[in-house]
Amino acid sequence: MNPPKIFEDLTAWQSARALTNTIYVHCRREPLARDFGLCDQLRRAAVSVMNNIAEGWESLHPAEKIQFYNIARRSCGEVRSMSYILLDNQFLSTTEHTDLRSSCQRSGQLISGLIRSISQH
Known about the structure:
elongated, de novo design (two linked rop proteins), single chain, mainly alpha, 0% strand, 4 helices
């Protein structure tokens, strides 16, 4: 398997993209679509995961890479935390919540792998 050459090839970025798309799908559904503040925060956090992976990948300095990847990982936690608001307010079914939480955890694990790969060099 060839190493990734661009951030779009990273499994972590692809996972973050899928997470972001899931958030956008949920935020288009009623009644969640009417909660503008929550949708805005969810979208921003999900987009932060994607963008910080991309920024970390593009950085030439290992310390900066780790910093961007850490921000991305924290943003996964933010989305996961907000997923409980979605569940508690019946914006998501239990199954949808489980899937969203798993997606957040998977993205976080992949980002942790990126951090470990930088730390080992």
